[in-house]
Amino acid sequence: MKDSYHFEVKKKRPEELFDKVSDYFKGDILKNYARSKSMMHIQEKITIRSLELLDLKSKNGLILDAGCGPGFTSTYLKEIGYDVVALDIISEFLSFYNINELNPIAADMCFLTFQPNTFDAIISISALQWIFRDKINDLMKLKLIHLSKDIENTLKPNAKAIFQFYPKNNSIMEAIGKIITENTKLKGTYIIDNPNNAKKRKIFLLLEKECN
Known about the structure:
Elements (H helix, E strand, L loop, with lengths): L13 H4 L3 H4 L2 H9 L1 H18 L7 E5 L5 H8 L3 E6 L2 H4 L10 E2 L12 E7 L2 H4 L6 H17 E11 L4 H14 L3 E7 L8 E7 L4
Parallel strand pairs: 1-2, 1-4, 2-3, 4-5
Antiparallel strand pairs: 5-7, 6-7
Helix pairs in contact: 4-5, 8-9
């Protein structure tokens, strides 16, 4: 999962200013995010692109939306015919709208407790940068290892997971790829849309669980 592509984001993002995602998403910030039609539209577009990259052969599958926030991605997936489990560590997000049909679960996506071979796909939008953003932080590394192993365990054979996220730089991308490669048998690749436009750039990590 290495690449010669280089970039560095100069502006500090919320995940660099707050230790935990729950420290940032609370109060008015959480409410404004959950009510944002613009954010809903952006996440729908990213979800559509994620489905293109996943290339699922059927809509009969069960998808985990990991780090779902208020459920923008989960709602769209449900509307087009998928069964969905919406999971987020911030319970206030899960109760902001009535999303009971999305099987909401308040839990840390790094510590999945599902049975093996449960999901036909896993989608995560704009969450991975909160989990791993510092190469010398051992706790972040351990959480990423646990996440990658749980993904491998809960995906069905030949199923895929896709993470759209906002890494600070290409060095973080490479570190994530190295950690996953060293600790699982998942096959992965990065897809970068609009690589030369910092404002429109979207980075996806596509992982596949192969049959044993």
